[in-house]
Specification:
The protein is an all-alpha fold. It contains ten helices and no strands.
């Protein structure tokens, strides 16, 4: 069938340049052609599976796979082919990873992953900015380990994630909690000191 033929060209017969031309042709048609969008999605599955593997420990394999497929398909249907006409697979996989990463940050900072932390759950769940996945993942991996080993409380973990990863200010959190900002700084300092001890013992 057409879908299988496209995937054969991309995965087996085509050089990287030829594969990119095939994917670019699909990307041009994807906004109005569901079959082209599905073919492009199928061709990207090896790269998308790597995202599932990276995040499934925190979100669950099935939930992660669903989130990755949904994000990739949405990006395919809106891919800016005129602005980014080359490296189609790498671009879409990177964009998808960013979307899933931002969702993970929201889940960790504002959802139930680390449990409630008072009125901080009322913070707008759209962070002002988020770091690149590669940098933030190192922090989250360490926090995960610390929480799982009971060397860092969930409240401390949430405070670090909110202010260091999700880019929320200590002043914002102080206002929500009705605290002096110095108290929030002190709480974060103690939390990060505990996390630093975990990092030293895990090295």
């Amino acid at each position: 069938d057409r879908l299988g033929s496209v995937n054969t060209v991309v995965a087996v017969n085509g050089s990287p340049a030829e594969a990119d031309r095939v994917l670019a042709a699909l990307a041009r048609r994807a906004p109005s052609d569901a079959l082209a969008a599905r073919a492009l999605l199928q061709a990207l599955m090896p790269g998308l599976k790597s995202i599932v593997g990276a995040y499934s420990q925190r979100l669950g394999n099935e939930e992660t796979a669903s989130a990755v497929i949904a994000a990739a398909y949405a990006r395919i249907r809106m891919y800016p082919i005129e602005r980014r006409p080359q490296h189609i697979a790498a671009n879409i996989v990177r964009d998808t990873r960013q979307v899933v990463w931002r969702q993970l940050i929201k889940d960790l900072a504002f959802g139930s992953a680390f449990g409630p932390i008072g009125s901080l759950t009322t913070v707008d769940p759209t962070p002002a900015a988020t770091p690149e996945p590669a940098a933030g993942e190192l922090v989250l991996n360490l926090i995960d380990e610390a929480v799982r080993s009971h060397r860092l409380s969930r409240d401390c973990a949430r405070l670090i994630v909110l202010t260091r990863v999700a880019d929320r200010s200590c002043q914002e959190l102080a206002d929500l909690e009705g605290l002096d900002i110095r108290a929030v700084y002190q709480r974060r300092y103690r939390a990060e000191s505990r996390l630093a001890r975990v990092a030293r013992t895990s090295a």
